[in-house]
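[step 3/7] fold_predict: job queued, chain A
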Amino acid sequence: MVAPKPFTLHIRDAEIADLQARLARTRFPDEPPLAPWSTGTSLTYLKSLIDYWQTGFDWRAWEAKLNGFPQFTLPIRGIDVHFIHAPSRKANAMPLLLSHGWPGSVFEFHKLIPLLTERFTVVAPSLPGYTLSFRPGQKRFGITEIVWSGISQAGNRCENQVFRTGQFSVYQFRDLPWSLIHDGLPRNSATA
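[step 4/7] structure written:
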């Protein structure tokens, strides 16, 4: 079994500068002579959003917040899956899997994880093929592949390597939400 590799997010200064320069060159359309939002995004809102990402967003502060969590990557079915593995402050704590939606990221849990680690060891993977579990040219997973990759399902039928980070190896999942929207997945699934 391949060991998870430690991961630290660092966006290069040149990439941030490039994004800011592209945002500065945004060509805005005219505001239609109708009520804002009646024909799409409000031009005033769009301009404020562009300005925020160009001049207001503090990349380094948010990078540091995410890097405050223990992060790893692990190759699963051709994708380097990124995940947070935050050990509990309680001995022999039950592992808890947090799965974000799409679009989204594990950073949605940055306030919740410290609270949960009072009682649980938290594993929060980035969806395989997206955000931090993606690099250009890498394949992307659909719902079925995500579930069967071991991110949302454990057991002998799939690769549950993300869960084997040294402290635990067994989970149990019941009533997977994704199973409600895809006929090919089991409604209830037990672990090995």
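[step 5/7] annotate
Helices lie at 13-24, 43-56, 59-67, 112-116, 143-148.
The chain has two domains: 13-58, 69-189.
exit 0
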